[in-house]
């Protein structure tokens, strides 16, 4: 069974077996064949009273379940998320309690120190609650010296990890991730004499405020398999002992202030490593070629460091699923590293963004594993054309190649990527017409082609991309009219940007079909005719830019329906008539740009018009007028978006 990072196998198994159980209390008892004694009866009464107290202190106790009598176990269970309130100290009276799981609830307050009285307690899981305060040092006592798993992740605990936790020889898992704990790694974990008999397999301390150096003695824990120190304030270097810890399968020290170089032989000294996360630090030097020999590795994340040199071959990493080398100072060389990934049959994601990679994107891009879902090559200096062979990556869902030097036509084969969800090719030098095959991408949600040199007509086939939520074709050389098929994309919600092209003709009446659209920008074209009244049906519009066209006529009365709009720019057109007084009622309006006229014209005085000259700019439509206040001539205001 696959395990979830951050949870031991045993706990995962239990949580799956009791998927609807968030409070599970088990008790070891005498054999059913043993005669009943006064002592056992007294213990039963004590346990029963403690459970009744627990039920009383936690709200929604009517759903807490029944007190089940049995020869082997007694348990109290309740559905996840139903418990509120504080954990009562009387819980410490359950002297036969060995497994306590109150995870995934809304429990508040502090962890009761009385748990130290539970002499048979082996497992504590209080994760994903709202618990505060410090981890009680009394949690570790002579009575609880047999604790095996302590899981306190995802709470609001603060303070230091008690030193005494490091003295529990039977402890196999300590999970305190995602709290606000401070200080350094407990001194007791740096005591090699205690570590020699330690059973610790999982040590997950991520997302806290731990400081100081990583103790080298962590590498002496005999059976350590998973170590997660990410998202802290640790400094210094990674101890050599950790780079030589052969039992490690998961080593994550990302997002700290660590420095140093990766040892040249790491691929041999960590033979069982499956996940290596060093991102967000100050590591430097070259990526060791020996990493290509770490044949069990699945996730390699070296992002956001200062690594230099050529990316080495990774052809032996057949289990690799995720590679993130972005935000470094690496070089592609002859791009042979890309073809070396062809053997990674489970490969799902490759991030090579913001690295100053140079050269032409090779044809071998199409030889990447068919399993690849994410290809991120943003903000490099990649030149040449997009290879048509990219069509072989049929499982690709996210393709980001913006802000490069790519040129030439967008290959027709781009339409053969049936699972594509995001296609981002903006800020390149692509030219020619957008192929009609793009209409085959019926799962496409976001399309970014802005700031290229595309020309010709906007393909009507885009109307077949029924799942589009964002479409940006701005800052190109598109000509002709806006195809009405675009306005059948009723799921367009984030934005439609056709600005800064050479589009002409009337705005189709079908524009009213964009009923979920938030941002519409058709500015700086050569559109003519009147503003269609159907635009008033786009009631979710928050931003409307139509400036810099050849539009004439009146502002439609239907605009009264656009009550949620925050900015509107209709300037530099040939509009006439009055500025509608209903604009005074638009409480969300932060910016209105309509026209500039002679000083004799008057405008509304309420609402946004009270801030005239700050958020209201009335310029560029010489025949537009209104009935109220006197306004001076304003300078030309044009905002490129």
How do the strands and helices of this protein lay out in sequence?
Blueprint: H1 9-17, E1 24-27, H2 38-57, E2 84-86, E3 97-101, E4 106-108, E5 123-125, E6 149-151, E7 158-159, E8 173-175, E9 180-183, H3 192-195, E10 202-204, E11 209-213, E12 226-228, E13 233-237, H4 240-243, E14 250-252, E15 257-261, H5 266-269, E16 275-277, E17 282-286, E18 299-301, E19 306-310, E20 322-324, E21 329-331, H6 336-340, E22 349-351, E23 358-360, E24 374-376, E25 381-383, E26 398-400, E27 407-409, E28 422-424, E29 429-432, E30 446-448, E31 453-457, E32 470-472, E33 477-480, E34 495-497, E35 502-506, E36 519-521, E37 526-528, E38 543-545, E39 552-553, E40 567-569, E41 574-578, E42 591-593, E43 602-603, E44 616-617, E45 623-625, E46 629-630
Features:
single chain; 641 residues; mainly beta; 23-stranded mixed beta sheet; 8-stranded parallel beta sheet; 46 strands; 24% strand; disordered C terminus
Question: Describe it for me?
Answer:
The chain is mainly beta. It is 7% helix and 24% strand. The protein contains six helices and 46 strands. The longest helix has 20 residues, at 38-57. The chain is globular, with a radius of gyration of 32 Å. It starts with 8 loop residues before the first helix and ends in an 11-residue tail after the last strand.
């Amino acid at each position: 069974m696959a395990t979830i990072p951050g949870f031991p196998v045993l706990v995962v198994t239990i949580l799956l077996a009791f998927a609807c159980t968030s409070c599970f209390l088990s008790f070891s008892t005498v054999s059913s064949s043993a005669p009943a004694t006064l002592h056992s009866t007294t213990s039963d009464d004590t346990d029963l009273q403690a459970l009744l107290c627990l039920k009383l202190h936690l709200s929604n106790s009517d759903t807490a379940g029944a007190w089940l009598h049995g020869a082997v176990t007694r348990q109290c269970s309740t559905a996840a998320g139903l418990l509120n309130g504080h954990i009562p100290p009387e819980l410490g009276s359950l002297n036969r309690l060995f497994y306590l799981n109150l995870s995934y609830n809304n429990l508040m307050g502090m962890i009761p120190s009385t748990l130290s009285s539970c002499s048979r307690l082996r497992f504590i899981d209080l994760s994903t609650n709202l618990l505060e305060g410090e981890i009680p040092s009394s949690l570790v006592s002579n009575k609880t010296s047999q604790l095996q798993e302590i899981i306190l992740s995802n709470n609001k605990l603060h303070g230091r990890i008690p030193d005494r936790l490091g003295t529990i020889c039977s402890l196999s898992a300590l999970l305190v991730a995602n709290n606000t704990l401070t200080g350094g790694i407990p001194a007791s974990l740096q005591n090699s004499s205690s570590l020699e008999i330690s059973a610790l397999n999982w040590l997950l301390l991520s997302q806290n405020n731990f400081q100081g150096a990583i103790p080298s003695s962590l590498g002496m824990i005999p059976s350590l398999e998973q170590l997660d120190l990410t998202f802290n304030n640790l400094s210094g270097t990674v101890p050599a002992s950790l780079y030589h810890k052969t039992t490690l399968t998961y080593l994550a020290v990302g997002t700290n202030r660590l420095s140093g170089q990766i040892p040249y032989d790491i691929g041999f000294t960590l033979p069982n490593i499956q996940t290596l996360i060093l991102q967000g630090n100050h590591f430097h030097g070259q990526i060791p070629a020996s990493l290509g020999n770490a044949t069990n590795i699945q996730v390699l994340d070296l992002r956001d460091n200062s690594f230099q040199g050529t990316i080495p071959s990774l052809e032996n990493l057949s289990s690799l699923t995720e590679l993130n080398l972005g935000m470094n100072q690496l070089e592609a060389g002859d791009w042979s590293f890309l073809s070396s990934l062809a053997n990674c049959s489970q490969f799902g994601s490759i991030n090579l963004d913001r690295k100053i990679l140079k050269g032409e994107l090779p044809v071998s891009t199409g030889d990447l594993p068919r399993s690849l879902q994410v290809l991120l090559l943003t903000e490099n200096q990649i030149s040449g054309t997009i290879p048509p062979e990219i069509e072989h990556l049929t499982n690709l869902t996210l393709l980001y190649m913006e802000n490069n030097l790519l040129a030439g036509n967008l290959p027709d084969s781009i339409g053969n990527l049936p699972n594509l969800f995001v296609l981002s090719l903006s800020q390149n030098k692509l030219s020619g017409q957008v192929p009609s095959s793009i209409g085959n991408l019926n799962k496409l949600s976001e399309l970014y082609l802005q700031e290229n040199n595309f020309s010709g007509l906007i393909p009507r086939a885009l109307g077949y991309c029924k799942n589009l939520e964002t479409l940006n074709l701005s800052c190109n050389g598109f000509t002709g009219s806006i195809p009405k098929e675009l306005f059948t994309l009723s799921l367009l919600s984030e934005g439609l940007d056709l600005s800064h092209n050479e589009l002409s003709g009337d705005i189709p009446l079908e524009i009213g079909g964009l009923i979920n659209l938030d941002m519409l920008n058709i500015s700086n074209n050569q559109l003519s005719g009147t503003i269609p009244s159907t635009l008033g049906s786009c009631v979710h519009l928050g931003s409307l830019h139509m400036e810099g066209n050849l539009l004439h006529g009146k502002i439609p009365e239907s605009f009264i329906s656009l009550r949620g709009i925050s900015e509107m720019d209709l300037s530099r057109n040939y509009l006439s008539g009055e500025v509608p007084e209903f604009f005074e009622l638009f409480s969300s309006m932060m910016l209105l740009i309509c026209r500039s006229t002679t000083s004799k014209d008057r405008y509304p005085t309420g609402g946004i018009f009270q801030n005239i000259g700050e958020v209201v700019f009335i310029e560029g439509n010489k025949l537009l007028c209104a009935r109220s206040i006197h306004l001076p001539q304003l300078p030309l205001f044009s905002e490129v978006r």
